[in-house]
Write a structure and sequence with these properties.
- InterPro entries: DUF6944 (IPR054224).
- Pfam families: DUF6944.
- This protein has 207 residues and is mainly alpha-helical.
- It has one domain.
- 76% of the residues lie in helices and 0% in strands.
- Helix 1 runs antiparallel to helix 6 and helix 3 runs antiparallel to helix 4.
- The longest helix is centred in the first third of the chain and has 29 residues.
């Protein structure tokens, strides 16, 4: 991968991390006092939109490397899932909770599958590959829990569903931040020059 592609992947990961943080705060507000429900739901929509942007940047960066095509596909699936979640939040805000929750379950399920896909196809030669795999599985588990939480809400068990969704959102934040941190730490700096053949090498000035 060229230096700018590595930077794009890392930038996308940190943008996704910021999105999961915003979404987690929103889910916490939704699960709390009723007065904070609308603001919380709006934060969830914004957070999911930011996550989708981060996923897309990562997918674009990964698509440039033929050996990481499946990882790129996983990122695109996560982007699609997060986009669906954002649309679901908007639908809920406009008053159609049932339709919004069904979309939310779909989006979380697609995102969970995408993260699991990425975890299974992480290049073992990458620096800190183990941490990246762990992070992706946490994202997958968190998204799956959010889907379960939405299902509970759909079935009238709002209190339990909100709590599950909030917990799942924090798991996602932990997972994405683990991945972003591992990618960043995996960067190798050698005398300020790019070394051909090394995947994570780029000029020190970019750090």
């Amino acid at each position: 991968m060229a230096a700018y592609e590595v930077l794009l992947e890392i930038t996308g990961a940190w943008i996704q991390s910021a999105g999961t943080a915003i979404a987690a705060i929103g889910e916490t507000m939704v699960a709390g006092e009723e007065a904070g429900y609308v603001t919380g739901e709006r934060l969830v929509v914004i957070g999911n939109g930011i996550e989708a942007t981060g996923n897309s940047l990562q997918a674009i960066a990964l698509s440039s490397n033929v050996t990481r095509t499946f990882s790129s596909l996983g990122s695109w699936l996560q982007a699609a899932g997060n986009t669906t979640n954002a649309v679901a939040g908007i639908v809920i805000l406009y008053g159609d909770e049932k339709a919004g929750l069904k979309l939310d379950i779909l989006g979380d399920s697609v995102q969970s599958a995408g993260a699991a896909f990425e975890a299974n196809f992480v290049d073992g030669s990458l620096p800190l590959a183990g941490a990246i795999i762990t992070g992706e599985y946490l994202v997958s588990l968190g998204a799956a829990l959010e889907a379960i939480g939405a299902y509970y809400i759909l079935k009238g068990k709002k209190k339990h569903g909100d709590a599950i969704q909030a917990f799942g959102s924090y798991l996602q934040f932990a997972g994405v931040t683990t991945v972003a941190g591992a990618l960043t730490k995996g960067v190798i700096c050698r005398d300020g020059y790019i070394t051909e053949g090394d995947l994570y090498v780029y000029p020190c000035s970019y750090i």
